[in-house]
């Protein structure tokens, strides 16, 4: 049930997990403290599709597992506090409609995040970026560093158009940190380089996250344009994906993968001029990565080299996986080949 209060502070204390499945409102002159794993382990703070925590006053207090968070209520205020202290802890106090900001011409948050952003299940909607220029990382954030985390954030109705040598993703252009329980919807397009529903280039961790965005790029994925040494787990993508250009790679989940993908799936239609896979466009295992396990794809696949699960598999590994979508290839080389090990169920 909905929960709200306007005086005193409330502590939610769990042996393991706390799951927010309805609206929780801190109305003012008050605060909230959240404690997970109090005596237990393996628990987490999570939010259902309608569960979120909002604060009416930015001066109200929020503490998560003993760490204090600074409240923000807009994209510009979030950019400002991160610029001042990239290692700080910040929380989105409520839903924010970014259409009032107009169109950005670079990532709104240009300082790499070294700290923690907690979305609290709230959304930033209608963020628009139109970038034309040289090499850059484009998204709500330009980069998440190895120590950075973005959790429980929803990006709804994004509209990104990028021309140039840029990695573009719904939340972040380049990720070396952690994305946990985040989601993105909208349209993301890059004419020359990688594009992903959540992340352009992932060298970190993506877990329990999803994207429904339509994605277009040279190396494009429903969730990540490129999973370059990163780890994607318990995540999914459902949007349509297109890989453009003469070497266009497209994957329902990731355009390119030389990291690890596990317990994840994709259902969107995928089309790539070079390689197209229902889950991964190109799966590269030459350096010991390129692992796909306990995952599946169900979307239609069209490409030069097309596979229901993987379009082009360069010595990669696929274990306990399957694909159901219709596949159309324009090349003699179809499906998965040049593999170290394939395990089909």
- Overall structural class, as computed from helix and strand content, comes to mainly beta
Which sheet architecture does the biggest sheet show? 34 strands, mixed
Radius of gyration: 20 Å
**How much is the average pLDDT?**
92
**Proportion of helical residues:** under 10%
Question: Please, how many helices?
Answer: 1
Poorly predicted runs are 332-345
- Percent of residues in beta strands: over 45%
The beta-strand count equals 46
**Between the first and last Cα atoms, what is the distance in angstroms?**
41 Å
Sum up the overall morphology in one term.
globular
Descriptive labels:
345 residues, mainly beta, 34-stranded mixed sheet, seven-stranded parallel sheet, 46 strands, disordered C terminus
Short summary:
By secondary structure, the protein is mainly β. The protein is built from 1 helix and 46 strands.
Descriptive notes:
- This protein is mostly beta strands and 345 residues long.
- The protein is 3% helix and 53% strand.
- It is built from one helix and 46 strands.
- The protein has a 34-stranded mixed beta sheet that branches. Strands 17-21-25-30-35-39-43 form a seven-stranded parallel beta sheet, with no helix packed on it. A three-stranded parallel beta sheet has the order 1-4-7, with no helix packed on it.
- The longest helix has 10 residues, at 75-84.
- Mean pLDDT is 92; it is low at 332-345.
